[in-house]
Design goal:
Blueprint lengths: L2 E2 L15 E10 L7 E9 L3 E5 L6 H8 L7 E6 L2 E2 L6 H7 L1 E4 L11 H8 L5 H14 L16 H12 L6 E5 L7 H16 L3 E5 L3 H7 L2 E6 L2 E6 L1 H5 L4 H5 L7
Parallel strand pairs: 4-9, 4-10, 7-8, 8-9
Antiparallel strand pairs: 1-11, 2-3, 2-5, 5-6, 10-11
Amino acid sequence: MINQKNTGTRKSADADSTKHVVDAIDVVIGYGGDPIVNGVTMSVSVGEIAAIVGPNGAGKSTLAKGIVGLLKISQGLVKVNGQELKRGVTASDVARMGLAYVPQSRFVFPRLTVQENLEMGGYSLRRPDRIVRINMMLEKFPILKPFLSRIAGTLSGGEQRILGIARALMVDASGIVLDEPTAALSPQACDQVWSTVEGLRSNGLGIIVIEQRTNAILEIADRGYVLVSGACVATGSGRDLLHVHNLGDIFLGKLPSR
């Protein structure tokens, strides 16, 4: 079922949030002027993919940065594994709560080797624990095994995205936020990334994906949220949103008359 929302209506998170990795409730985020994100409510549970889609400038990446502690939440609240993000929380704090993050552009350290990238992801771990985590990542992402000594910047685009995900998961996490994971990738590389994301879901992670390739992400998403001008204007399962005949109009903020 599609829920099309008026931007001024207060929204509530799902009643049962005990298994939610992330709960964002009536979140407002800005950079000092008018809010970029204005009253958005969304959530993702363990073993789910939540897609956040919408036109350019809708506030998708701003929402992601607020959820992971890179931007201040001016109103509303965010919970990660049931812990509220209090004033002064940092991205490192959020990572320790169990939420990893792969930003839109800095997927890897391009001048470091694959192994060094993984080590950087686990820099806060003791060396024996770091070695264990690297081996876990290589088992989870076997495509990286032959490339341990390769300079990360020489990998293909899809391989770099997968390395970025593995690096983010070097610290044990129950969820991950991926911001534009297929940007500028070939169709074949996109398939690599989507296969990886679905594998993470099968392993029980809660995954939030900010994505411009709307059809591709809604095809695999359990939940979908459509942002327009900083507000969530429609929600539903990925498949339900994918088959809405007026999704293009919704992207333009043209909601049907009630």
